[in-house]
Amino acid sequence: MTFCLGVKTADGLIALADRRITSGSEVSSEKKVSIHQVQNHSLFIMTAGLRSVRDKALTYFEEVLENEDSGFDKLYQAVNSFGQKLKKVREEDEAILLKAGLMFNLSAIVGGQLEKDKEHKLFLLYPEGNWIEVSEGSPFIIIGNSGYGKPILYRNIKYTTPLDEVLKLGFLAFDSTRVSANDVDFPIDVLLYEKDSFNIVEHMYEKQDLEHISYQWNALLKNSVQKLPVDWIDPLLRKRQV
Fold first, then answer.
1. How deeply is 214 buried, as exposed, middle or buried, from its count of CB atoms within 10 A (0-12, 13-18, 19+)?
2. What is the pLDDT of residues 41-60, one digit of tens each?
3. Residue 74 has pLDDT above 90, yes or no
4. What is the pTM of this model?
5. ω into residue 127 within 30 of 0, thus cis?
6. Sheet containing strand 106-114, strands side by side
7. Cβ contacts of residue 90 below 8 Å, gap of 6+?
8. Torsion-angle region of residue 69: left (phi > 0), alpha (psi -120 to 50) or beta?
């Protein structure tokens, strides 16, 4: 399992992915984000699913980028191409995976902006190779372990939310997942893309870099719970005393 988050706002894109790889009892660390950018051409891919499928599909796609990159001037074209490579891997490997008791599984978040895109884009690519585009009405996507991080994002992220606030909320969504599931953990890779910049900025955070933020958030939550009104509890308490 993994945790990958992509957010599209009016100001740009935020992406976050953990590095934990769990295979049976073995735990390792592996980067789940790949970046490709040249002049007026910036895109990133984050994946969740079988590592063997990921590595093979990305290898095929990177070969396309090397040979046909100039043919893509809108991001959806690159997403279509990656989807085709994913379908090719399915044709080659699905039967043997099923025979071994494994489901063919790979989802991807693809974001960025190419030369003829009017704005930055964010897509969710399904294991079948088809995709949807993120819209203003639902500005974020999580793939992998998605249940624990969604509540804080649903409550707080809007298309107009500033990027620095999105970064905070994205980390809190990851942190909620990390403390609730043993298959998601530090380090994390964070990407920032500002609209029309054609430049993806990347930084990796270790646990010690952000542990104090997690502690402070926990303290704020406890304090907030203590400050909630209690008058609504009185009817229940009165029944107890009867």
1. middle
2. 999 999 999 999 999 999 99
3. yes
4. 0.94
5. no
6. 33-38, 41-49, 106-114, 121-125, 131-133
7. 104, 127, 129
8. alpha
Q: Which amino acid is at 224?
A: S
Q: Beta partners for 18?
A: 188
Whose tokens are 């054609």? That residue is: 198
User: For helices 207-227 and 163-180, what crossing angle results, to 10°?
Assistant: 90
Residues facing residue 36 across a β-bridge: 43
* Neighbouring residues of 104: CB distance < 8 A, sequence distance ≥ 6: 50, 53, 90, 93, 94, 97, 98, 127
CB 50 within 8 A of CB 89: no
In the structure, what pLDDT confidence band is assigned to residue 68 with cuts at 50, 70 and 90?
Answer: low
Burial of 145 (0-12, 13-18, 19+ CB in 10 A): buried
Instruction: Report d(CA 5, CA 157) in Å as an integer.
Output: 13
* CA nearest to 139, candidates 115, 119, 117, 114: 119
What does the chain come to in residues? 242
Residue type, position 193, single letter: Y
Q: Which residues lie closer than 8 Å to 23 by C-beta, 6 or more apart?
A: 51
Q: Among 214, 216, 196, 2, which Cα is nearest to 109's? A: 2
pLDDT at 139 over 90: yes
